[in-house]
Automatic annotation (TrEMBL):
It comes from Jiella mangrovi. PANTHER family: ALIPHATIC SULFONATES IMPORT ATP-BINDING PROTEIN SSUB, TAURINE IMPORT ATP-BINDING PROTEIN-RELATED. The keyword Transport applies. InterPro entries: AAA+_ATPase, ABC_transporter-like_ATP-bd, ABC_transporter-like_CS, ABC_transporter_ATP-bind, P-loop_NTPase. This is ABC transporter ATP-binding protein. Gene3D superfamilies: P-loop containing nucleotide triphosphate hydrolases. Residues 37-264 form the ABC transporter domain.
Length: 288
């Protein structure tokens, strides 16, 4: 693997140093969830029949969690992420982000959003792509420079700032888009199948490095995926969704601890959780 294909490892640090908070304790302490959805519903009005994309979603996500949304195509994973990001308005129920409405949270720049495709502007260099949200926020040039360098270093792209997106591999472009989402230091990262288009080896590697980055920055991450192993490897909890109207079928704790080398995927504990997720997907799908 090229060195440039790696997110930087947190050398000398281990993920065990991370304070993985205990949700029950935080609830008892009255901590405000980062995301709190109650009875959330979304019906898209279309030219023919209305599309019931989300139905009765109840979900609380707390600071420092890594929560994956998994489910069959069209079950509303992206729609749920877009509701959190204030890119779609629910038609029923309530949702707060950091205790605010999604609209207020968006204006407060509470989250960074990483799309499935890197969505970088091809006519801007990597550093100019990273600068864009900072320019919009009116951050001065010197501070922009500092944050861009820090962001590039965080994702292992130091020295690539002057390149254009098309001069980088798919994995490197996706890392640049992660750095852009982190450039204004949001506590919450929303990621919509960010590695879905990458080959398995690069994807494995970025999974491993994303986990280290999460441990290092203590962000809350909501991550959409179709992959059971990816969900189990990354998450502290897995939300299994069922097809239209998209509902939460089951929420599975993924208590594998913070230290997760790739070969954890061969352990009985990992395989047992993957099995539960698969069973949840099957049951939610109504195959039988
Ligand atoms: N703007 C829209 N107007 C009408 N229907 C929509 C709109 N956006 C999404 N949908 C429909 O809502 C349902 C949920 O879509 P969504 O993209 O959230 O699913 P998903 O689980 O993310 O799917 P995939 O895994 O294929 O990306 C689908 O039936 C989709 O066709």
């Amino acid at each position: 693997m090229l060195p440039s294909e790696s997110l930087p490892s947190s050398q000398g640090e281990t993920t065990t140093s991370r304070k993985v908070g205990d949700r029950a304790e935080r609830d008892a302490a009255g901590g405000v969830p980062v995301i709190a959805a109650r009875g959330l519903d979304l019906v898209f009005a279309t030219a023919d029949a209305p599309v019931h994309a989300l139905k009765d979603i109840d979900l609380s996500i707390h600071r420092g969690e890594f929560v994956s949304l998994i489910g069959p195509s069209g079950c509303g994973k992206t729609t749920l992420l877009r509701v959190i990001a204030d890119l779609e308005r629910p038609t029923g129920g309530t949702i707060t982000v950091n205790g605010m409405s999604p609209d207020a949270a968006r204006r407060a720049r509470a989250y960074g959003y990483v799309f499935q495709a890197a969505a970088l502007y091809p006519w801007r260099t990597i550093e100019k792509n990273l600068a864009l949200p900072l320019e919009i926020m009116g951050i001065d040039k010197a501070e922009q420079r500092r944050r861009i360098e820090e962001g590039l270093e965080l994702v292992g792209l130091s020295g690539f700032g002057k390149k254009f997106p098309w001069q980088l591999s798919g994995g490197m472009q996706q890392r640049a888009s992660i750095a852009r989402a982190l450039s204004f230091d949001p506590d919450l990262l929303l990621m919509d199948e960010p590695f879905g288009a990458l080959d398995e080896i690069v994807r494995d590697h970025l999974n491993e490095e994303l986990l280290k980055l999460w441990a290092k920055t203590d962000k809350t991450i909501v991550f959409v995926t179709h992959s059971i192993p990816e969900a189990v490897f990354l998450s502290t909890r897995i939300v299994v969704m069922s097809p239209r109207p998209g509902r939460i079928h089951e929420i599975i704790d993924c208590d594998l601890g913070p230290d997760r080398p790739l070969d954890i995927r061969d352990t009985p504990e990992f395989l047992a959780i993957a099995h539960r997720v698969r069973e949840g997907l099957r049951a939610g799908h109504g195959y039988d």
